[in-house]
Every structure is written in structure tokens, then in C-alpha cells.
């Protein structure tokens, strides 16, 4: 297709691959990372590691399109994500530090309201299925303010199957989950990858998801950037 | 477009469950206006003279009181990240959220204003004009205020800053809103004032979503 597009491992552009090329990010006049390149082909799980402050969350927000890189490009297949921001937003599903759970809505309403915002038209059994996948089936009618931290996190993760996207960007999804819940998350990730999706997950714990790639960010440099 | 109405429905449901926004705005509006007959005496000619101004100033302040709710809680619990990553462009997100804000607060001000007109001895010829002027002015207040709410979304306790930013921008609405009511009370046509209010509404309808989306993008970085 296009000459010079040799970032994917196979040497040919893959239309379902998110490629970062020579990315740098500057936050508060500090270089968080620079010269970072990666590829997230379909069916891959990339585990992102690094000490606190190394830029894991920043990289995930960059891949989601919430941040713009200082230098470098992010491409989906052959296309820069800046050129098609709406298309990119439809492909990705981002799970951040914050659970985005509304305490005044019930568990089921939280999920169905969110699905409607994403243009998904889930049937009642889709909502129930997503809740069951994260062991929340009995809590659908419970106001979300009564949920524990781990349950809120599971409700946040239950968004993933309700409105499917190609690429999951998970920012420390195992925080406050017990080991059984981590197992549910691993199962969901494996199922997503088996269906041709891809996952970029920042985590400090060991996830048993058959990770196909590892990426480690170094601790950030402390000197100010020449911005 | 379905996502637009989904966001409006969600904000209305949240407002109904929380309840406090609508109630506090209505109570604030009524109480503030009620203070004036108590403060300056029951003389009806004096009250009638200031009625339009008092009702409009109270409506401005009541709108201001509720503005920090537009984006603040969604920003703090991470919902705004997810909404920004959803299929709806941020401009339409801003429009949906200001529209929901108006339905929850502004609409109530429109409905309450004639009641407060009675309390303020407003000239009976001016009631219709007051309602029309409020119906044109309050959406503009929500739209202009939405820009301020978007700008200050990441500022903790940004209420004072928000007021300082937005109150000066409310002056044109106040001038033409009061002008319309006074003109009707004096028995002359309020049409030019109402047309100006309509123009301000259309202008803010175009400007506000774009400016709010820009401010939200800066705050989400």
C-alpha cells in the first residue's frame, strides 16, 4: 500500500493494528517518555509495566486519543488517528482509574445508561450477561452507592462486553479486585482476544492472559524538557 | 442523534434522583425575590418599578448557583472521560448537557417568574412579556454559563471563579430582559428587546457548544 509503512512486525500494514511510532509525551514541562514505538495487532495482549510515574496512564490516554503526543504518530492501520478521531473512538474502550459509577443509579441502570451513550442497544439479557460475567448478576437492582470498591471496579469492567470495541485500553484494572474477580477479568480478556480484539493493559500484578508482548516504561527523567 | 438524547435523558434522570439541583434553584429564586418586598417595603409603585430588574437579577444568580453541576461530578468520577471517548462529538455533548441543565433549572424559572411578578406588583400588562423574555433569556443563560462551567471543570471549588467569569457575560441578557419587561409595563412595544434576546440566544447557541468543547478538551488533557 503505502511505502515507508514498515512498523508492523509482518512488514505489511494491517488495518486492524494500532501503531505508535517514535512517540514522545511532555507533561508539565517534563518528558514522560520519548522515542516509544509499539504495535498492537489483532489478537494480541500487550502488558505495560513500569514504576509509578513512568507514564503508563499517559500512554493509555495517548492511545485513547485523550492526549496528543508531543512528537511521533499514532496510526490505526495506515491512517493517523488524528485524521479520524470519531472512528478511533468507536474502536477503543478505555477503562481508567476512576470507575465512573453514578451512586444514585442502580447497577443495571449504570450499565444501560452508559451503553445508550455509546449507541449500543443492549437487550435486557445482554446487560444481565455482562453483569454475570463479572459476578454482579444478583446486584442489578441495587443502588450503586452501596457497592464496595471491588464491586464498583467490576461494574466499570462490565461496560467492556456491553458495547464491544476492537481495542481495550485498561489502566490498572486489577486494583481492588480479589483473586476470583481477577480470574473473571482474565477470562474476559482471553475471550476478547480470541475474537480478534487487542488489549493494552497497564498493571502491576501478574495476569494470566497469555500475553503476546510486554512493554516496560522506564522511570521518567527528572530534567525539564527543551520545550 | 440517539446518543444525544441518551445523554439528555441520563442527565435528567440523575437530576431527578439527586433532586437537590432543581429544588435549590427554585427555592433560591423565590427567596431572593421575596426579600425585596420585605426589605424596601410594600409600597406597590416602588415595587412595580423595580419588579423586572429584581426578577431578572434573581434568575441570573439562581442560574449561576447551579452551573457547577453541569460537568463537575462527571469530571470527578471519570464519566466525562468516557463520554468524551464515546461516539458523540464533544460539541454535541456540551449542547446536550446545557440543554438538560436548562430543562432542570431554566424552565422552572420561566414557570415561576409570573408568580413572583404578582408578589412584586408587576404591571398586569407585562406578565406575558416577562414569560416570553424569560423563555428566550434563560436558555441563553444556560448556554453562556456552560462555557464557564467547562472552563472551570478542573478547578476545585471553582464557584467564585465561575461567577467572576460568567456574570459580566450575562449583562446583555439582563439589559434586554429588563428592557422588555419595563417597555411592556410602560405600554410601549417590547418587540425590539425580545428580538435582541432572541439574537443573543441564537448567538450563544452557535458559540457555546464550540467554546465549551474546546475548554473541555483542554481540561481532559
| C-alpha Rg of chain B (nearest Å) | 18 Å
Distance between the termini of chain B: 26 Å
Shape of chain A: globular
Tally of DSSP β-strands of chain B: 0
Walk me through the structure.
The complex is a heterodimer of chains A (227) and B (221). Chain A has 227 residues and is an alpha/beta fold. Chain A has seven helices and nine strands. Chain A has helices spanning 56-64, 85-91, 107-117, 124-133, 149-157, 159-162, 179-194; strands at residues 18-27, 30-40, 45-49, 71-76, 79-80, 92-95, 167-171, 198-202, 213-216. In chain A, the strands form two sheets. In chain A, strands 6-7-8-3-9 form a five-stranded parallel beta sheet, sandwiched between helices. Chain B is mainly α and 221 residues long. Helices cover 84% and strands 0% of the residues of chain B. Chain B has helices at residues 2-18, 20-40, 44-67, 72-76, 79-84, 90-119, 127-151, 159-185, 191-220. Chains A and B meet through helix 2 and helix 3 of A and helix 1 and helix 5 of B.
Précis, in short:
The complex is a heterodimer of chains A (227) and B (221). Chain A has helices at residues 56-64, 85-91, 107-117, 124-133, 149-157, 159-162, 179-194, and strands at 18-27, 30-40, 45-49, 71-76, 79-80, 92-95, 167-171, 198-202, 213-216.
